[in-house]
TrEMBL record:
Lineage, highest ranks first: Bacteria, Bacillati, Bacillota, Bacilli, Bacillales
Keywords (A to Z) from UniProt: Heme, Hydrogen peroxide, Iron, Metal-binding, Oxidoreductase, Peroxidase
InterPro entries: Catalase, Catalase_AS, Catalase_clade2, Catalase_clade2_helical, Catalase_core, Catalase_haem_BS, Catalase_immune_responsive, Catalase_large_C
Protein name per the record: Catalase
Functional note: Decomposes hydrogen peroxide into water and oxygen; serves to protect cells from the toxic effects of hydrogen peroxide.
Catalysed reaction equations from the record: 2 H2O2 = O2 + 2 H2O
Residues of the Catalase core domain: 26-414
Annotated spans, Disordered: 1-28, 507-532
Length: 676
């Protein structure tokens, strides 16, 4: 791509990119190195000499290559992209990047799990981070959200406690990347404001199929301020164009072993294939006058604004279209902060947000080693930046001149503050009054109504999954009292949940309780999400002597619908049809696994090997047990018959290849088929 075609951030990064291929090896001082396999020794059997500057430099750099991982969200993966607004949001905010539909703002998005270490598996049960850096003309704006719209706690002062309880227990550092242990659930039972988020965490939302198929939320209530100074409360939403889809729990656990990099691989490959992930940006707006018009406090981060009451207005779209060049330089060194705002976007008194405004810079100081992390290529704004800050570890810029203070006369009092008209950030002049107290408003104390709203809004299958998730998590808890406390806590939500979980874990089942909220918010159920076949992976199981032409017809048809077939067989290499048509095999039964596909297409063949059939049937049975679409033609149909899974929901067979392909693509779009 020519430099003019690149967006502003990409152009800026270009000046930092280095290509080492084809070059001579040098030290960091630029000295060409003549030998890189033997250190400088006193004699060919003697000791290494201190004088060996090449050895010392290479080793010292290596010894210092690790930086502290993020205390939370350590395991993450990121991509570049662009954001465009559909029409000006001028009525509500003066933020420049939300005004002009012809402007494309470069973005960098990092997705993450929360609890696990940097090397942990990606399909664990957890919230997912969804952090977006917009490189706007007015400075960087960071929307540092999650894929769950509420949070565990209401006040940031509890964050260290929450994270200590979630992380591996300190005495034995077990378990990794899991909430299914005593301290996490002990924290939950003793901090009941977490009830609503726990419902989400135990739902399918916390085992997403893909980063491309999950929503993102700013969680907090922020403020939009327009040119006239009028403010609205605002909540931000990212809506994935492919819809919201999840794995099933058994599958998620198996994928964690078979491919711990499942989500990053999926994102990386989609972008490499040109299947660019897209998310629409939505906003919910509440006028300042309506601050107290709802049965929740708009400042409470454990509450949603039901979409049916406060509609989500879609204002733009983000497209992720470029993978990083270097994960450490970009993904690891990117520094997000909810306090990175631009004029037109401001904060509220949400006590969780207020605490976050401190924590993020603080953490970058230890993680990135000093106050100059804004100079790292990935963190630099694309607009100019000037101030009187100087020095510190790793300073890059060479600020010229005598003056590094304000006010001054020598540099005509520059760099000078900008007026509001010139783009200077002016904080919203909210009136604040009160005594210094360590308390929380009564309006934050209803912890169960929205947890019940969430439950009411789930389909029967989603409810079953929540019961199973609680039963699994609490089943792993050793402490009987903690188990019982959690059961008693969730009896406040609904006995339909508390009772079956109590039975599953041998706790005493509550007989009374339950919130009387009967409201439903259909937007909360994934069953009502967009369903498309695009980018779904189908494992095509085939052996020798199949009807190549017919298989080709099916695959071509599936591909026109955006479906991606990959061949699975007993061996790598080429498999030949009876008509001479050949297919290159992508995976063997050993290297592939049914859990790595969205669907299976069983072609079969004429293998005389019993082991082939056994392996294929293992795949089929597992995919069936995970409610996945299964298609079969030719000999494949007889294998399905053998294991009695024909004429079941989402199992498609056929002799007319065109009709079969259409029906199978329809079944794939449905994602899962629960009624089996
Ligand atoms: Fe946080 C990282 C999202 C509450 C303190 N947080 C971090 C990341 C995301 C979130 C997505 C990873 C950013 C990246 O990819 O680099 N955090 C949230 C959301 C919250 C939230 C949606 C609730 C609404 N966080 C929260 C609180 C505190 C923190 C209450 C502390 C008071 N979060 C941090 C942190 C991290 C972080 C320790 C670790 C690494 C980093 O900041 O850069 O400062």
């Amino acid at each position: 791509m020519s430099n003019e075609m690149k967006n502003k951030k990409d152009q800026q990064l270009e000046s930092f990119r280095v290509k080492d291929e084809g070059k001579k090896l040098t030290t960091n001082q630029g000295l060409k190195v003549s030998e890189d396999e033997f250190s400088l020794n006193a004699g060919d059997r003697g000791p290494t000499l201190m004088e060996d500057f090449h050895f010392r430099e290479k080793m010292t750099h290596f010894d210092h290559e690790r930086i502290p991982e993020r205390i939370v969200h350590a395991r993450g993966f990121a991509a570049h992209g662009e954001f465009e607004v559909y029409e000006s949001a001028k009525e509500f905010t003066k933020a420049k990047f939300l005004q002009d539909p012809t402007v494309k703002t470069p973005v960098f998005v990092r997705f993450s799990t929360v609890g696990g270490s940097k090397g942990s598996a990606e399909t664990v049960r957890d919230a997912r981070g969804f952090a977006t850096k917009f490189y706007t003309e007015e400075g960087n704006y960071d929307l540092v959200g999650n894929n769950i719209p509420v949070f565990f706690i209401q006040d940031a002062i509890k964050f260290p406690d929450l994270v200590h309880a979630l992380k591996p227990e300190p005495h034995n550092e077990i378990p990794q990347a899991q909430s299914a242990h005593d301290t996490f659930w002990d924290f939950i039972a003793n901090n009941q404001e977490s009830a609503h988020m726990v419902m989400w965490a135990m739902s399918d939302r916390s085992i997403p199929r893909s980063f491309r198929m999950m929503e993102g939320f700013g969680v907090h209530t922020f403020r939009f301020v327009n040119e006239e100074g009028k403010a609205h409360f605002v909540k931000f939403h990212w809506k994935p164009v492919l819809g919201i889809h999840s794995l099933v729990w058994d599958e998620a656990q198996k994928v964690a072993g078979k491919d711990p990099d499942f989500h990053r691989r999926d994102l990386w490959e989609s972008i490499e294939n040109g299947d660019f992930p897209e998310y629409e940006l939505g906003v919910q707006l509440i006028s300042e006058e309506d601050e107290f018009a709802f049965d929740f406090d708009v400042l409470d981060p454990t509450k949603i604004w039901p979409e049916e009451d406060v509609p989500v207005k879609i204002i733009g779209k983000m497209t992720l279209n470029r993978n990083v060049d270097n994960v450490f330089a970009e993904t690891e060194q990117v520094a997000f902060h909810p306090g990175h705002v631009v004029p037109g976007i401001d904060f509220t008194n949400d006590p969780l947000l207020q605490g976050r405004l401190f924590s993020y810079t603080d953490t970058q100081l230890i993680r990135l080693g000093g106050p100059n992390f804004h100079e790292l290529p990935i963190n630099r704004p694309v607009c100019p930046f000037h101030n009187n800050q100087r020095d510190g570890y790793g300073r890059q810029t060479i600020n010229k001149g005598q003056v590094s203070y304000h006010k001054n006369s020598i540099a005509a009092n520059t760099p000078a503050p900008a007026s509001e008209e010139e783009g200077g950030y002016v904080h919203y002049q909210e009136k604040v009054e009160g005594r210094k107290v360590r308390t929380r408003s009564e309006s934050f104390k209803d912890h169960f109504s929205q947890a019940k709203l969430f439950w009411n809004s789930m389909s029967d299958v989603e409810k079953d999954h929540i019961v199973e998730a609680f039963s699994f998590e609490l089943g792993k808890v050793q402490n009987k009292s903690v188990q019982q406390q959690v059961i008693d806590m969730f009896a406040n939500v609904t006995l339909d949940l508390a009772k079956p979980v109590a039975e599953a874990i041998g706790a005493s089942a509550p007989t009374e309780g339950g919130s009387n909220v009967d409201k439903v918010s259909p937007a909360l159920s994934q069953e009502n999400s967009v369903k498309k076949p695009d980018t779904r992976k189908v494992g095509v199981i085939l052996d020798q002597d199949f009807n190549g032409n017919e298989v080709k017809t099916v695959l071509d048809e599936l591909k026109t619908q955006g479906i991606q077939p990959e061949f699975v067989s007993d061996k790598l290499g080429v498999k030949k049809g009876a008509d001479g048509i050949e297919f290159e095999i992508d995976h063997t039964f050993l290297t592939g696994e049914s859990v790595l596909f969205d669907a299976l297409y069983v072609v079969g063949g004429k293998s005389l090997e019993q082991s082939f059939k056994e392996d294929a049937i293992y795949f089929i049975k597992e995919a069936f047990s995970h409610f996945k679409p299964i298609g079969a033609t030719h000999g494949g149909i007889s294998w399905l018959k053998e294991v009695e899974i024909v004429e079941k929901q989402g199992v498609v067979t056929g002799k007319d290849m065109k009709v079969f392909s259409q029906n199978f693509a329809g079944a794939i779009a449905e994602h899962r088929h629960w009624n089996r």
